[in-house]
Design brief:
- By secondary structure, this protein is an alpha/beta fold.
- The protein has twelve helices and ten strands.
- The chain has helices at about 5-20, 30-35, 40-55, 95-110, 125-140, 155-165, 190-200, 220-230, 260-270, 290-295, 315-325, 340-345, and strands at about 60-70, 115-120, 145-150, 170, 205, 210, 235-240, 275-280, 300-305, 330.
- Strands 1, 2, 3, 4, 5, 6, 7, 8, 9 and 10 form a ten-stranded parallel sheet that branches.
- The chain starts with 5 loop residues before the first helix and ends with a helix.
- Mean pLDDT is about 90; it is low at about 335-345.
- It binds S-adenosylmethionine, 6-(5-methyl-2-OXO-imidazolidin-4-yl)-hexanoic acid and iron/sulfur cluster.
- S-adenosylmethionine (SAM) binds near residues 79, 174 and 243.
Length: about 350
């Protein structure tokens, strides 16, 4: 093939520059056009956008802990923890503070800079929140960033979490508004947007993303990314999960997603939200090292790290460290607000 002409080169450079602009007005057609690019062109654009704002060889690692497991009143069709499905999961009460602190310390000692605590609640009660606030304080005292995912939040609850110095709140859109009703019926897509608005308005970093491989169409994936990218502010963290199929749930046995389509979705997320962390989330146990390497090339720069997600397995930390070594990736270190005492006391 002939080399690119000067004007083709200029056009390409211009396209790549435009990928570095923060926009909140993406049309569905534009997003579908990105998905439709030749794979190499898409990855080139995503990698270029990534390099403009991030160290391309750095990966942020968060460790998860389920602080309250199972018996959830919601009917999320993917979830091991819904009381509506027989998934043979042992339910557990809210963990005591000392167990949470021990798990966070172990995660920190293995190199995680963020500890993410998840609870199987539709929403926390104010008394639940008192306990979680103690946990957040204790984990911050270990010098780690904190994230919690507790279900729906009121504005007042979000403010309480901000006041204790919570760094991130995770609440996923999960899928497109159009496909949503096929997956969850006990709360609406709008409920999710409302919780995210409460978190954002309280000034907490938003962590919001999705699950791929639930039987959704390519248009659903584009619409889901459009919803995330057209929020008033991009979520600072965007977890992209691949469905972990759980026996007993309605989504068990659904046709999985083509791995290259998954990589494309990461690349499009990176281009649409160039300043956000894009997390290669659940499902890594089912991915080859090579597929994960492609996801990093496509702009993923964060993972869940440690042997356990919430109720299912994740690659072990040694394997991940070896993979990072083979790829020349280094793990990001914790950066907490300089003045910890402002929000949290001495
Ligand atoms: N109960 C809270 C809620 O739903 O917001 C917090 C915990 S919930 C388990 C957090 C997120 O984990 C879900 O929104 C979903 O995106 C993801 N998740 C749960 N089960 C999953 C599965 N089997 N495979 C992939 N992602 C999953
Ligand atoms: C997110 O997007 N993925 C995490 C976290 N946020 C809370 C949860 C993944 C759960 C995978 C299935 C399980 O372990 O139960
Ligand atoms: Fe409950 Fe969260 Fe699981 Fe839905 S995803 S069933 S709200 S724990």
């Amino acid at each position: 093939m002939a080399p690119l002409s000067l004007s083709q080169n200029a056009e390409r450079r211009e396209l790549n520059m435009s990928d570095n602009v923060i926009r909140n007005d993406w049309s569905l057609e534009e997003i579908q056009a990105l998905f439709g690019l030749p794979f190499n062109d898409l990855l080139y654009r995503a990698q270029t956008a990534h390099r403009a704002r991030f160290d391309p060889n750095q990966v942020q690692v968060s460790t998860l802990l389920s602080i309250k497991t199972g018996a959830c009143s919601e009917d999320c069709g993917y979830c091991s923890q819904s009381a509506k499905y027989d998934t043979s999961l042992e339910r557990e009460k809210l963990l005591p503070l000392d167990e949470v602190v021990a798990a966070a310390r172990a995660a920190r000692d293995k190199g995680a800079n963020r500890f993410c605590m998840g609870a199987a609640w539709r929403n926390p009660t104010d008394r639940n929140l008192d306990k979680v606030i103690e946990m957040i304080q204790a984990v911050r005292d270990l010098g780690m960033q904190t994230c919690v995912t507790l279900g729906m939040l009121s504005q007042a609850q979000a403010q309480r979490l901000k006041d204790v110095g919570l760094d991130y709140y995770n609440h996923n859109l999960d899928t497109s508004p159009e496909f949503y009703g096929n997956v969850i019926t006990t709360r609406t897509f709008q409920d999710r947007l409302d919780t995210l608005a409460h978190v954002r308005d309280a000034g907490i970093n938003v962590c919001s993303g999705s699950i791929l491989g639930m039987g959704e169409s390519g248009t659903d994936r584009a619409r889901m990314l459009q919803e995330l990218a057209n929020m008033p502010q991009h979520p600072q963290s965007v977890p992209i999960n691949m469905l972990v199929q759980i026996e007993g749930t309605p989504l068990f046995g659904v046709d999985g997603i083509d791995p290259l389509e998954f990589v494309r979705s990461i690349a499009v997320a990176r281009i649409l939200m160039p300043a956000s962390y894009v997390r290669l989330s659940a499902g890594r146990n089912e991915m080859s090292d090579e597929m994960q390497a492609l996801c990093f090339l496509a702009g993923a720069n964060s993972v869940f790290y440690g042997e356990r997600l919430l109720t299912t397995d994740n690659p072990d930390a040694n394997h991940d460290r070896q993979l990072f070594g083979r790829l020349g990736l280094h793990m990001e270190e914790a950066e907490l607000e300089a003045d910890h005492s402002v929000c949290c006391g001495p």
